[in-house]
Amino acid sequence: MATPNGMTNSDAKDDPTDSVAQEQHIEKDVHIAAEEGYSATDSRGVSIIELDRLAERKLRNKIDMMVVPTVSILYLFCFIDRSNIGNARLAGLETDLGMHGNDYNMLLSVFYISYIVFEIPSNLACKWIGPGWFIPFISLGFGVCSLGTAFVQDLPAACGVRFLLGIFESGMMPGISFYLSRWYRRSELVFRISLFVVMAPLAGAFGGLLASGVLSLTNIGSVTEWRMIFLVEGIITIGLSLIAFITLTDRPETARWLTPEEKTLAIARVKSELLGQTTVIDKTNRRRVWLGFWNPVVLATSWVFLFNNITVQGLAFFTPTIVATIYPTYSTVQKQLYTVPPYVVGAVFEVLLPLLSWRLDKRQIFLILVAPLTMMGYIMFLASTDTKVRYAATFFTAISCFAAGPLTNAQVSAQVISDSARSMSLATNMMFGNVGGLIATWSYLSWDGPNYPIGNGLNLAASSMLLILSTLTLFWMKADNKRREKLDVGKELEGLSQAQIESLEWRHPGWRWKP
């Protein structure tokens, strides 16, 4: 039977003798099906409600327009503020700050130390405060830090500002992914994550263009050379953050741009995939938070992201340096511009692969498929000193490695049930990933140039491990799902209260891993 918001109950037609009673029950409870106290799945996680596809598509398009652009623009400048250090390096940062040897690598490492340490606390704070307030706040914080970098006079001051930058940026990617998980189904999430994560390669492209444009100026007031990059980008980020405090809504219930029926549908469609849950946004629960971390697929995927992030962050920080070694006679502006094309191509595939993942509702197979292209790129770096071959290698690595970011975030989100567990699973993935980022800061050392065999060899090893671990994880998920098929769900849950059942997470006998 159709409902005002386009929902029908699939069980209504299972038993004709109960159809009248069921229809009366649906009429009474349809609008509270999305509220606390009502589960929208059976004991095996199968939805007991159906949603009108047209109504749901219209709602999804509306959410796409109102939510995704704001977080995408914020993440664009988040990544620009982080990676513009590479452009500043080409414009004389090391000379002005009196840096020598591996000082640049140390400056990058300081950022990742705070990033890693504050990753989990930041995302738990995001759940507690609410992403609608928390995301604009940390965005404002890293904008101020970027602005402050324009005025540092020595290496210790630069390290201090980068440490603060890491604190504020630590909650950005897991926080936005967590925020989007409140609005989208499991299959839809990967593509929406890609729409903001794609800002990472675009930040490389746009950041290079912006840096070239800024450096064409003689000065901005008393600020000159590389300092102008941080000044301009910091001011832009601060302005966007202030706007986001107004435009970013916390969850469907508080969205002023949704009608009451759309709010009900928005909650119900997410809840229809939450095994045994009577609420979409639960109160923070220690057991659920722990199981969001102590989850075999979450941990395996987090290791995959660690290996992948060695490549992603290495590419972000050292593409300008790599280009400089390939084209040493070119001007600084020309070198900046040559960093743009690989990022643009990478951005296209970062959206294309998650789009396919969404349509197929598969993530693990795509993690497996991206690894060989990354491996190919670094084999080309190691095997040839020809400038054209090495420049082509940057395209192969960009095509493949950037797509793993949204895929891993969507995967760890899909392998948990509750809001509490999801805040932890996403933070865990990013914490591991940024350990990879820390490793990346030491993968291209000055004495290893100009061909960087150690750095390229490390990235080849990391992408190889990504392939092996992703493949093993897929086989394990399928094997464990077969084992779970043999379980008697009713018997396993016998004697447990509703609260205990909701806290089982992946240990629920009706749970199935979602590759």
Explain what the structure shows:
It is built from 23 helices and four strands. With 515 residues, it is an all-alpha fold. Helix 4 packs antiparallel against helix 20 and helix 14 packs antiparallel against helix 21. The longest helix has 38 residues, at 53-90. 52% of the residues are buried. Residues 1-30 have low confidence and may be disordered.
- Show unreliable segments: 1-30
Radius of gyration: 24 Å
Count of helical stretches: 23
What is the straight-line distance between the termini?
33 Å
What's the total number of strands? 4
Judged by helices, strands and strand pairing, the structural class is mainly alpha
- What coarse outline follows from CA principal-axis ratios? globular
- Main beta-sheet annotation: 2 strands, antiparallel
Reading side by side through the largest sheet, how are the strands ordered? 1-2
Helical coverage, percent range: over 70%
Average of pLDDT = 85
Q: Order of SSEs, N→C?
A: EHEHHHHHHHHHEEHHHHHHHHHHHHH
Strand portion, in percent?
A: under 5%
